[in-house]
Design brief:
- The chain is mainly α.
- The protein has one domain.
- The chain contains 8 helices and no strands.
- α4 runs antiparallel to α6.
- The longest helix is centred in the N-terminal third of the chain and has 29 residues.
- The model has no long low-confidence stretch (mean pLDDT about 80).
């Protein structure tokens, strides 16, 4: 269960202030929250399944030692990316389908190359159980986006976004540095 909970925690952290969380807030102001959550769920299942498969096969092609270094470095990068922040570039207006399919397609495309998808790939290279990674990252996305919707609508964005971003970024950087140390300790 460690891969599941680790994946869940990393995605929740990665989503704080992420464009897909902003997208969830935008869609929740337009559509019923249930439609938004089902769209997020469908998009995340498909997107993160792709990421887990890719991450699982990388360990067959590339030696594990190199993957650990890259994965740990990527967590430091995710921390810095979290500090930079994301903004919503009309992803909520890009499609004109039914509300469910609009949310699903927008989320799927917004996740392509996003830090949560990249974190999913990195986690899949690190842990041998891809199903737990897939379910953990999907759960983390749903949890984070539901919190974003609730706080965004109910509290009118009165949360200290800057503090949340800094905390998430520092946790990412900490795990990246400890992972790098572990991967390189024999060379130091």
């Amino acid at each position: 269960m460690i891969p599941y909970f680790t994946s869940l925690a990393f995605v929740v952290l990665a989503e704080m202030g992420d464009k897909t969380q902003l997208l969830a807030m935008a869609f929740a102001s337009k559509y019923r929250w249930q439609i938004v959550m089902w769209g997020v769920f469908a998009a995340t299942l498909a997107n993160h399944l792709f990421a887990v498969i890719l991450g699982s096969y990388l360990t067959i092609i590339i030696p594990l030692q190199y993957i650990k270094i890259v994965a740990s470095s990527s967590f430091i990068f995710f921390g810095l990316w979290t500090l930079k922040g994301d903004r919503l570039d009309n992803e909520d207006k890009r499609f004109n389908f039914s509300p469910f399919w609009t949310v699903t397609f927008a989320f799927f495309l917004a996740e392509m190359g996003d830090k949560t998808q990249l974190a999913t790939i990195a986690l899949a290279t690190r842990y041998p159980n891809p199903v737990q990674i897939w379910l953990g990252t999907t759960s983390g996305m749903l949890l984070s986006d539901s919190v974003g919707i609730i706080f965004g609508i109910v509290l009118g964005k009165k949360l200290p976004e800057r503090g949340i971003k800094w905390l998430a970024a520092l946790i990412f950087i900490f795990f990246g540095l400890t992972g790098l140390y572990d991967a390189l300790k024999n060379y130091l």
